């Protein structure tokens, strides 16, 4: 038996009703491109051959395979739901809302325009301030990356950032007093080929 959605949302600390969350998921799904029934249809015969030669599988998903877009839709919905408004961010860190807008414009905070105004991902805040060292990391991040990519980077353990004997996420690293320049160095590679 699966847990009701309300229970899952509450355990995750998301303050949203099941209907509101499903609406967020639906909005996020609409923003993605439609599923490609035949991925090979996008390419010429020569391109298909070249891609197949390097091991790329261009066959359509089978009926039993999960749609890889599902995780992205869920992550996008959670990112939107947990994001703060300008007023909420200002209240949290004890500044005027105009200061929050200035920080967004100066890339000292990450945000995106949404219905009703700016939204700021919660990962960049502590309970009462901005994440220590955030400005150093944001200055190194490529400006062309979407908020979800930045959120995933900041909350995913990185092998090059260790706390004790385990990899830490850049957010954990900064909260523990780690050198923001190390996280910034990693952040500068977001979106570049490995």
TrEMBL record:
Keyword DNA-binding among record annotations: yes
Keyword DNA-binding appears in the UniProt entry: yes
Keywords associated with the record: DNA-binding
MF terms in GO: DNA binding
Descriptive protein name: DNA-binding protein
């Amino acid at each position: 038996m699966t847990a009701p959605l309300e229970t899952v949302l509450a355990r995750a600390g998301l303050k949203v009703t099941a209907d509101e969350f499903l609406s967020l998921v639906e909005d996020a799904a609409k923003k993605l491109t439609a599923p490609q029934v035949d991925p090979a249809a996008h390419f010429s015969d020569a391109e298909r051959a070249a891609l197949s030669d390097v091991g790329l599988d261009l066959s359509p998903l089978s009926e039993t395979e999960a749609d890889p877009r599902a995780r992205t839709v869920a992550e996008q919905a959670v990112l939107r739901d947990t994001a703060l408004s300008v007023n909420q961010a200002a209240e949290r860190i004890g500044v005027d809302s105009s200061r929050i807008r200035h920080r967004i414009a100066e890339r000292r905070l990450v945000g995106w325009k949404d219905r009703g105004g700016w939204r700021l991902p919660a990962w960049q805040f502590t309970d009462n301030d901005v994440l220590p060292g955030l400005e150093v990391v944001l200055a190194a991040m490529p400006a062309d990356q979407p908020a979800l990519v930045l959120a995933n980077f900041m909350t995913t353990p990185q092998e090059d950032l260790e706390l004790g004997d385990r990899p830490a996420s850049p957010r954990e690293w900064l909260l523990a007093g780690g050198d923001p320049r190390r996280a910034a160095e990693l952040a500068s590679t977001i979106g570049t080929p490995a």
